[in-house]
Please model this.
Amino acid sequence: MTPPLLRPLRTAVAALLASTALATAPAPATAAPTDLRTVLRCRVATATERPITFSPELTLQPRTIRVTGTFRVTHCSSPDGSEPRLRGGMAMVQGNALASCTGASRITGSGRIVWYDSAGRHAGVSRFRPLRDTVNGHNPGDAFLGGVVTSGPLTGAYLSGKATPTSDVSQCAGLGLRTVYGTGRLRFLR
Model:
């Protein structure tokens, strides 16, 4: 269980982790339609050799932070059978945000997923952008961010994801935070 004083820090880092997973060019603060079905769901985790990096380090003081990271996209399945070819891949993201240990806004950047099929063959590249530019939450599990695929496989599908830090984020308020690891889930809806 997370001590009460660390919950806001874990929440903010989870929000940045989620925003990093999905952050791209700025977009209006809108949401996906509510009558969509899940066409693909996957697990995501930061790559062991490439955690999410913050430059300069994330602190209590809000400032413009450069965020980069690579996520492994694994265990993909298509509940409705419409996307059986996409089984996993690598997501690369980079962007900027006005960020601190307690939240992030003004998220901009770019993101893409290089997809592979079940035999490990290249299955295309999806590019995506966010539907909102502020990330807030009350706990790491609530750190959601939505987006939309703009090109490649799943073009037009909406993204819905959440991520939770798996590394210690307690030093954010004191020493600052330069890197973070995390895991989560990602869904694509149409």
